[in-house]
Amino acid sequence: MKRTAFALTALAATGILLASCSASAGAADAGSSETTARAFTGDLSPEEVLAANSDYTTVNDDEWSADDAVDVALDGSTAEASGDGVSVDGSTVTVTAAGVYRLSGSLEGAVVVEAPEDAQVVLILDGAEISNADGPAIEVRTADDVAINLASGSENTVSDAASYAEDATVNAAIDASSDLTISGDGSLTVTGNGNDGISSTDDLVVLAGRITVSAADDALRGKDALVVEGGELDLTATAGDGLKSDQEENETQGYVLVSGGTIGIAAGDDGIQALTDVVITGGDTTIDAADHGLEGESILTIGGGTITVTASNEGMQAISVGIFDGTIDLMAVDDGINASGINAGGQERETDTGERLEISGGTITIDAGFDGLDSNGSVTVSGGDVTISSAENGGDNPIDANGTATVAEGVVVANGEAFDSDSIQQMPGGPRMGGGEPGEGRQGTGEMPGGGEMPAPTDAPDADRAS
């Protein structure tokens, strides 16, 4: 269980108040209302954030041998096994015991793992093509740990049903009710016609492989944790998220970790979404997202790697954001990096509610339609190289916070000019852009504080936008 750690750079402290900061639309997606938004007072480094979360489970390649594999020859609507641990009933192939199983050939049906609760099962896909018009192509019903290994040089494909019932609990092309690890040097193409591409109710870990996923909803989903340590991933999530973890019953789970690999994401919602934390320590990730490029409902921390968001509503968002290293390039219709999730808007929208945005390293380029760095709490820049292009419409700023804002070290360039703390001004008690309840635009009701109307901006994006 690997953890990559980075030391925290000491942060400088000054106290300068910025113009008003937008309120968050909420700390969690619909269906996740049990998660309580709260300020985090500890170290935002990847090392500390991972230490506070549960470990994840992998099945490494040195824990099993291909020499022990039972060969399973898939043949249209049936199959034949060379040994024990496999039963065949029509077009359903069921693995019933711990062990290693090599699947090859074509099957119009399903491969099901229904092994003892303590079993470790390895499925080697070696030129396997599995399509199931009635449900998942590969379904893990019972087992402790399951691995899918892509045989070197092999090309494998799986696809599932065109639709599932609204209350279906099994609804992905590869659907596992266990920890699931994917490894190997082969390729895997997954078509999630009815919902998700690859889903696990426990930990989903990608160690290696060339993996292409096209899904109606989420591409990869690990409920307890979703971890990418390596591989080449090409993910399309038509109406959902590219990488997603959504465990809401345990605050030490529900996180996404990317420590390696090359990942390309096209998402109809968020590129990377975690109900708790998003941790990036390596890899090369490119995201085109309709909503957030990366979103952690609690913490988003970056300690390395390359992140490119070519399109998003907001580039990055979490209650607290820490950037320690890495190369980051963000394009956003709204804010580039947004620390929000506690402020409920309304009368408290101008108050510091504890969110934190802290940058102590890395190379960061932001092209934002509104604020570059935005926090409902504090902003601290104590290192790194930050270049911001943002709106200059009188109400949005390169750096915007409800609380203190510090630019103590590092290089910050905003709209073509060097930016330092002397250029940050505390707004007097006069008119400010903003107001309104969550879900309303920056201009709120269009009224100026104290009466009168606010002139409508002529060059801003649509007002109906997320915070």
Model description:
This protein is an all-beta fold. It has one helix and 36 strands. The chain has one helix spanning 46-51; strands at 70-76, 78-81, 86-89, 92-95, 99-108, 110-114, 120-131, 138-142, 145-150, 155-159, 172-176, 179-184, 187-192, 196-200, 203-206, 210-215, 220-222, 225-228, 232-237, 243-245, 255-258, 262-267, 272-274, 277-280, 284-289, 292-296, 299-311, 314-318, 320-332, 337-339, 356-368, 373-375, 378-389, 399-401, 405-414, 417-418. Strands 7-9-12-15-18-21-24-27-25-22-19-16-13-10 form a 14-stranded parallel beta barrel. Strand 1 (70-76) and strand 2 (78-81) form a beta hairpin. The two termini are 36 Å apart. The model is unreliable at 1-35 and 425-467 (pLDDT under 50).
How do the strands and helices of this protein lay out in sequence?
Elements: H1 46-51, E1 70-76, E2 78-81, E3 86-89, E4 92-95, E5 99-108, E6 110-114, E7 120-131, E8 138-142, E9 145-150, E10 155-159, E11 172-176, E12 179-184, E13 187-192, E14 196-200, E15 203-206, E16 210-215, E17 220-222, E18 225-228, E19 232-237, E20 243-245, E21 255-258, E22 262-267, E23 272-274, E24 277-280, E25 284-289, E26 292-296, E27 299-311, E28 314-318, E29 320-332, E30 337-339, E31 356-368, E32 373-375, E33 378-389, E34 399-401, E35 405-414, E36 417-418
Parallel strand pairs: 1-5, 4-6, 5-7, 6-8, 7-9, 7-10, 8-11, 9-12, 10-13, 11-14, 12-15, 13-16, 14-17, 15-18, 16-19, 17-20, 18-21, 19-22, 20-23, 21-24, 22-25, 23-26, 24-27, 25-27, 26-28, 27-29, 28-30, 29-31, 30-32, 31-33, 32-34, 33-35
Antiparallel strand pairs: 1-2, 3-4, 35-36
